[in-house]
Design goal:
about 30% helix, alpha+beta, seven-stranded mixed β-sheet, about 160 residues, two-stranded antiparallel ribbon, single chain
Length: about 160
Amino acid sequence: MIKPNQSVPSLPIWVVKGEEVNQFDSSQYLSQGKIVFFGVPGAFTPTCSTHHLPGFVQNYDVFKSLGVDKIICASVNDHFVMRAWALEHEALENIEFLADFDASLVKALELDRDLIGGGLGVRYIRSALIIDQGIVQAVFIDDQPGALTNTGAANILDYLRQ
């Protein structure tokens, strides 16, 4: 599993930002300032949709006031699904969405979980990273299904306020 003081890996990624969908190199894209990166098991899934994403949307201005340059939500979904989910939550204006459609980034970060038994396939474990200039500063994990204590917006804000 990725740890503090490690660099983010270099892989092709798809990012939904505003009206655009573009492909980037992950190490370059995640080296642009101070980033809150959170991974969710799936767009449109219950906890992700009712609690995880909304917490970051609602607290966007607070994150910015604490020096965060961007907030990125990642999931093993294609960019069409990520865009539809972002639109449903009115999140495209402030949150960027990383479509890890083939699970290559989640596997490289070692934040993956096999949810094949639940019909979902390989997915992100509910996680959050603070990344500064491409270097991971902190890693947060919620490893129980449906749990949202360590990786939610409130906990990440508490960490940033320290």
